[in-house]
């Protein structure tokens, strides 16, 4: 079946909404959003095809690190310093991964400019910038460049 332009726009919007929900930490099984039924079917189709999407790569990584402390410890010990560029475009899932692997050494360097955030549609959260000092208190120092 060929979709017209309006139908394609709707498909893209539903896909973007599902991605936004995933990156906000919402699970398909508990989703109450109007796209929940489509999302469930999408997950079934991916499972049948033995496939994952970009958002799954992030969410599955976070789930692994949260449920397998030995794996989290292994990756946390692998990198003693972490640099994140374009920090203003990180979402909740990415930030949670960063907390798990970055906190043990607390050697974190992030660069970001809230005025240049372009991934709000993918769940980029300015809350990450606001709370980094609390989560990484041993190393938090903010430098503003005019």
In short:
The protein has about 150 residues and is mainly alpha-helical. It contains 6 helices and 2 strands, in the order ααααβαβα.
Topology:
Layout: H1 5-23, H2 36-48, H3 54-67, H4 69-78, E1 82-84, H5 92-102, E2 108-110, H6 127-135
Parallel strand pairs: 1-2
Helix pairs in contact: 3-4, 3-5
β-strand percent reads under 5%
The coarse overall form would be globular
Order of helices and strands: HHHHEHEH
Structure summary, number of beta strands: 2
| Oligomeric composition of the shown chains | single chain
Q: How would a crystallographer describe the biggest sheet?
A: 2 strands, parallel
Describe this structure in words.
The chain has helices at 5-23, 36-48, 54-67, 69-78, 92-102, 127-135; strands at residues 82-84, 108-110. It is mainly alpha-helical and 146 residues long. Strands 1-2 form a two-stranded parallel ribbon. Helices cover 52% and strands 4% of the residues. Helix 3 (54-67) crosses helix 4 and helix 3 runs parallel beside helix 5 (92-102). The N and C termini lie far apart (53 Å).
